[in-house]
Automatic annotation (TrEMBL), chain A:
Species, as recorded: Cricetulus griseus
Pfam (any one): MMS19_N
DNA damage recorded as keyword: yes
Listed InterPro entries: ARM-like (IPR011989), ARM-type_fold (IPR016024), MMS19 (IPR039920), MMS19_C (IPR024687), MMS19_N (IPR029240)
Coiled-coil intervals: none
Domain MMS19 N-terminal, first and last residues per copy: 3-153
Keywords on record: Cytoplasm, Cytoskeleton, DNA damage, DNA repair, Nucleus, Repeat
Domain MMS19 C-terminal: 397-824
Family stated for the protein in its record: Belongs to the MET18/MMS19 family.
Keyword Metal-binding tagged: no
Gene (UniProt): Mms19
Protein name per the record: MMS19 nucleotide excision repair protein
Automatic annotation (TrEMBL), chain B:
Family according to the record: Belongs to the MIP18 family.
Function: Component of the cytosolic iron-sulfur protein assembly (CIA) complex, a multiprotein complex that mediates the incorporation of iron-sulfur cluster into extramitochondrial Fe/S proteins. As a CIA complex component and in collaboration with CIAO1 and MMS19, binds to and facilitates the assembly of most cytosolic-nuclear Fe/S proteins. As part of the mitotic spindle-associated MMXD complex it plays a role in chromosome segregation, probably by facilitating iron-sulfur cluster assembly into ERCC2/XPD.
MIP18 family-like domain: residues covered: 62-115
Membrane-spanning segments: none
Source organism (scientific name): Cricetulus griseus (Chinese hamster)
Taxonomic classification: Eukaryota, Metazoa, Chordata, Craniata, Vertebrata
Protein name: Cytosolic iron-sulfur assembly component 2B
Pfam families referenced in this protein's UniProt entry, alphabetically: FeS_assembly_P (PF01883)
Superkingdom, taxonomy of origin: Eukaryota
Description of how the protein assembles with itself and partners: Component of the CIA complex. Component of the MMXD complex, which includes CIAO1, ERCC2, CIAO2B, MMS19 and SLC25A5. Interacts with CIAO1, ERCC2 and MMS19; the interactions are direct. Interacts with KIF4A; the interaction facilitates the transfer of Fe-S clusters to KIF4A to ensure proper localization of KIF4A to the mitotic machinery. Interacts with CCDC117; the interaction is direct.
Keywords from the UniProt entry: Chromosome partition
GO CC field: cytosolic [4Fe-4S] assembly targeting complex
Biological process per Gene Ontology, one example term: protein maturation
Length: 872, 160
């Protein structure tokens, strides 16, 4: 057929007839796939079918619905789905089959077999793309009856979904068909049928059929603008009326949720003319209904109200400025809800964010002034309100400010407000908790995140916030006689971390040009004490974080780290050589672990981005020398270890050849009496994703397979080290190994686990709960995936899991019980000898003092009961 | 609303085709206290409710078992569950009650004394069913019955 199409077509319908005779009675799935393919070609390449359309249909449709299970060890790999799809392609390839196919589909949808229902609905769905009104006409009532029955009564979500999809396609097909001038448009009568069968169910929001009815109507309404208009114009007034008829919150919620569904459908169609939009007529009623929902005591109803408001707001030109003012007022109120309606508050914040992008003016004039007032209230009302109340209102206000920073013009108002608040706190006339400064920083960070899409806002944020934040920090680090409370607060570890994360977020998305501009201010600030770019730069003494500055000043290296480690890779850093040397020196300084770790991270972050070459080799040599000197000395061994760890991580991430050597050094430390446990935990750092430095977002060189590679390169050595190590340091090796295994993606890990199985089983007896937990979490998927291998160790597994299910650590108890549950996947004959022992033993964790443990015990024990029982 | 029987193959399910449905409470949120190793969490009505939630979802939507109809006292080791058949002459009432009882026996510490009964006034033969469920010997004998155990286990297997 491929090469002799002309000649075959010359044979006319005889060829088709001959083929039908050959195909008749075929059973082999391989031949069937070919045969279906040929029939498809006959039809799509327009061979002459002559009078044999029905025969051709019969010879293929007799296989429908496909019922085929590939034999075990099938060498041909033909799946059931292959046959289903190729048969479907044939059946749905031509409208000429319609008169035969549609009755067959209806019959199969009505059958009792789930797969037949699904296949028929999917095939119907496929047919709708080639059929027109003419083919469907006679079968519409039966098709609707079948689909309705399936959606109303099914117990299977898949049948429901396919039924809805088929209805959607049917409606779309009817909407698009080109009609002959004298034909009647069937769409209206079809939709009227649907409405008639469904509308009365919409009036019973307590009954089960309310949702299936709404879903059917929505599936049809989603098919075309015309269908949507037809259905909404009937349903919306009905639902609006029903909302007022029912007074209970949960009934109203169901009704409003249905309204929401219909409103969402409107967004699919764009109307040129404002007056044509079907919603315009109902706007006032909808608004008043939404506002009623927003003031209802029921949280659930409020939540739906908020979502509906967002959808209404997203309709272009629907809401008037008066509606918006009211809406903003409601959102303001909801943004300050008490803790028990947290979900509502979060939803309100999200809605504010979405609506601000559409109506920045309304939010700027109606919401911002109120929030600004609320923010400043913190100052004067300290004494009057009780602490907790003020606190939470204050946090809500900060969150609301960041939530609406979704439009450039709003950012220009919110950012100064937040920074001003931070500076005010710095003036010392407000008692400031570190938690408050952190909350402001979190808000700033959220604003920065929201600015990332818009380069102009982002640069505005960077240009405004960065000098201000560095200025505040530098000022706080100055030695002073009367140190205000905030000054100390700003230097706390957590506050500096929060500030650093704002700086990082405000830097990662800078274009290289702008970043280069910024870096020429910040690096000299730290290396030379050049404070000229800071907003206030008259300080009592010099800022020298590196040259024997005070420890307060040293701590600010954390901010430098956040900045330089977030820069794009191709931005040149001025005075790099000097900076790297200063960082190395500081990383070994043992007076302040916070500062030395920050310096080590900064060094590692820069090292990771440094292109290969002589300079990189020099830096590496310097680092190795510093580490070795440090490890050899008595006093700064810890610092040297931290530096080693971070440098190793920087190199492991970019597959640098020296990383192997450093990893070996690190592994050697596992048997170090002093640093051993820290080295074991270090493996966790190597394998995990950092949040501040060495991140992909911060443009670090992170290869995607670095974990797998680390695993392959180092696990054999770790296992060997474990076997060779003296008894007292063995746990360090197990722990290191646990961290590596834990972080590896499970699909990668599973094929490797059987070789590690003996070690894992040994690790179950280890007393370290980190090792236990990690081992259990490795074994659990293994039980599910490779029950055969695990069956060999059933005795050990049952004993160890049961022992661990009374561990002192709750996480271990939970994991052990989850493993007991997973054990039930092993073949029943292996398990049955243990059944009564396990059921007895599991009675004990049923009475565990922790609920989360009991929950696992209940499900594990339940499964063990069912083992080998009738009916399971 | 009784006996809407189009295509009534599944007898038990379709005895009531458009029943009243109730809101499903979401997954129980885990509190800080529950994550704290030290704090003991006592067994409460919601926990008993969740034990049933996992095996027969429909039971919750249909409010056969409701949290408010569960009385539990951890210190006194007692639990009482009242269940409500969807219609007053539901033929499955005994079986539902038996399944609830078995699930409790398998899921609660042995120290608990269990009472499973029909919510007063919701079933035609309420008294008879309650009497059967309270009769230890009968329950034990019922569970010796392979056929009955099979049906109960089917109820208790997690719904796929």
């Amino acid at each position: 057929m491929r090469s002799r199409e002309e000649e075959l077509k010359g044979l006319g319908a005889d060829f088709t007839f001959g083929f039908i005779q050959v195909m008749d009675g075929e059973k082999d799935p391989r031949n069937l796939l070919v045969a279906f393919r040929i029939v498809h070609d006959l039809i799509s390449k327009d061979y002459s079918l002559g009078p044999f359309v029905e025969e051709l249909f019969e010879v293929t449709s007799c296989y429908f619905p496909i019922d085929f299970t590939p034999p075990p060890n099938d060498p041909y790999g033909i799946q059931r789905d292959d046959l289903i799809l190729s048969l479907r392609a044939v059946l749905a390839s031509t409208p000429r089959f319609a008169e035969f196919l549609l009755p067959l589909l209806i019959e199969k949808v009505d059958s009792e077999i789930l797969s037949a229902k699904l296949d028929s609905l999917q095939t119907l769905n496929a047919c709708c793309s080639v059929y027109g009104q003419k083919e469907l006409k006679d079968f519409l009532p039966s098709l609707w009856a079948s689909i309705r029955r399936e959606v109303f009564q099914t117990a299977s979500e898949r049948v429901e979904a396919e039924g809805l999809a088929a209805l959607h396609s049917l409606t779309a097909c009817l909407s698009c068909s080109v009609l002959r001038a004298d034909a009647e448009d069937l769409l209206d009568s079809f939709l009227s049928n649907i409405l008639q069968d469904c509308r009365h169910h919409l009036c019973e929001p307590d009954m089960k059929l309310v949702w299936p009815s709404a879903k059917l109507l929505q599936a049809a309404a989603g098919a075309s603008a015309r269908a949507c208009e037809h259905i909404t114009s009937t349903v919306l007034p009905l639902l609006l009326e029903q909302f007022h008829k029912h007074s209970q919150s949960n009934q109203r919620r169901t009704i409003l949720e249905m309204i929401l569904g219909f409103l969402k459908l409107q967004q699919k169609w764009s109307y040129e003319d404002k007056d044509e939009r079907p919603l315009t007529r109902f706007k006032d009623q909808l608004c008043s209904l939404v506002f009623m929902a927003l003031t209802d005591p029921s949280t659930q109803l409020q939540l739906v109200g908020i979502r509906t408001l967002t959808v209404l707001g997203s309709q272009p030109d629907l809401l008037s400025s008066g509606d918006l003012e009211l809406a903003v007022g409601h959102l303001y109120r909801l943004s300050f809800l008490e803790e028990d309606s947290e979900s509502c508050r979060v939803a309100a914040l999200e809605a504010s964010g979405t609506l601000t992008t559409l109506y920045p003016g309304a939010f700027s004039s109606h919401l911002l002034p109120k929030l600004a007032k609320e923010l400043h209230k913190g100052k004067s009302d300290v004494a009057r309100e009780d602490g907790l109340m003020k606190c939470s209102r204050h946090f809500c206000c900060l969150q609301a400010l960041s939530a609406i920073s979704t439009h450039p013009s709003i950012v220009r108002e919110t950012l100064p407000l937040l920074l001003q608040r931070l500076c005010q706190a710095n003036k010392g006339n407000v008692v400031t908790e570190s938690s408050e400064v952190i909350a402001i920083c979190q808000s700033l960070q959220q604003v920065a995140e929201k600015c990332q899409q818009d380069p102009e806002s982002y640069w505005y944020f960077h240009e405004t916030a960065i000098p201000c934040l560095f200025g505040l920090a530098v000022q706080a680090s100055m030695p002073e006689k009367e140190s205000s409370v905030l000054r100390k607060v700003l230097l706390e570890d957590e506050v500096l971390a929060a500030l650093a994360s704002v700086i990082g977020t405000a830097t990662t998305h800078l274009s290289p040009e702008l970043a280069a501009q910024s870096v020429t201010c910040i690096v000299p600030l730290f290396l030379d004490g050049n404070t000229s770019f800071l907003p206030e730069n008259s300080f009592p003494s010099r800022f020298q974080p590196f040259q024997d500055g005070s420890s307060a000043q040293r701590r600010l290296v954390a901010l430098l780290t956040a900045f330089v480690c977030s820069l794009p890779r191709n931005v040149e850093i001025p005075q790099l050589n000097q900076l790297m040397r200063e960082l190395l020196e500081q990383s070994c300084c043992h007076s302040c672990p916070f500062a030395s770790t920050a310096a080590a991270k900064c060094f590692a972050g820069l090292l990771n981005k440094q292109p290969p070459g002589q300079q990189l080799d020099e830096f590496l040599q310097l680092a190795v020398d510093t580490v070795e000197t440090g490890l050899a000395s008595g006093s700064s061994r810890n610092q040297a270890f931290v530096l080693l760890l971070w440098v190793t991580k920087a190199l492991v991430l970019r597959y640098h050849p020296l990383s192997a050597c450093l990893t070996t050094r690190l592994m050697g430390l596992l048997s170090d009496p002093e640093l051993g446990p820290a080295a074991a935990d270090g493996f966790s750092l190597l394998m995990s994703d950092c949040t501040d430095v060495l991140t992909r977002a911060g443009h670090a060189d992170v290869r995607i397979m670095f974990r797998q590679r680390f695993f392959t390169d180092n696990v054999p050595a770790l296992v060997q080290g474990f076997h060779a190590a003296p008894q007292d340091v063995k746990p360090n090796y197990l722990k290191g190994l646990s961290h590596v295994l834990n972080r590896l993606p499970k699909p990668v890990l599973l094929p490797e686990l059987p070789t590690l199985l003996s070690l894992l089983l040994e690790a179950l007896s280890c007393h370290d709960s980190v090792v236990q937990l990690s081992t259990l979490s490795c074994l659990q998927p293994l039980l599910l995936e490779s029950p055969q291998i695990m069956s060999l160790h059933i005795d050990t597994l049952v004993t160890k899991f049961l022992t661990l299910s009374s561990s002192h650590s709750m996480a271990v108890r939970i994991a052990a019980l989850q493993c007991m549950h997973a054990l039930t996947r092993l073949p029943a004959p292996v398990l049955l000898p243990y059944k009564s022992q396990v059921i007895r033993a599991l009675a004990k964790p049923l009475d565990d003092k922790k609920r989360l443990v009991r929950k696992e015990a209940v499900s594990a024990r339940g499964e063990w009961f069912l083992l080998g029982s009738p009916g399971s | 609303m009784v006996g809407g029987g189009e295509g009534g193959g599944r007898v038990g399910l379709l005895e009531n085709a458009n029943p009243l449905i109730y809101e499903r409470s979401g997954e129980r949120p885990v509190t800080a206290g529950e994550e704290d190793e030290q704090v003991p969490d006592s067994i409460d009505a919601r926990e008993i409710f969740d034990i049933h939630h996992c095996w027969e979802l429909a039971d919750e939507e249909l409010n056969v078992v409701e949290q408010v109809r569960i009385q539990v006292s951890d210190p006194e080791s007692t639990v009482a569950v009242a269940f409500t058949p969807t219609i007053p002459h539901c033929s499955m009432a005994t079986l539902i009650g038996l399944s609830i009882k078995v699930k409790l026996l398998r899921s609660l510490p042995q120290r608990f004394k269990m009472d499973v009964h029909i919510t007063p006034g919701t079933h035609a033969s309420e008294h008879a069913v309650n009497k059967q469920l309270a009769d230890k010997e009968r329950v034990a004998a019922a569970l010796e019955n392979t056929h009955l155990l099979e049906v109960v286990n089917q109820c208790l297997s997690a719904r796929s």
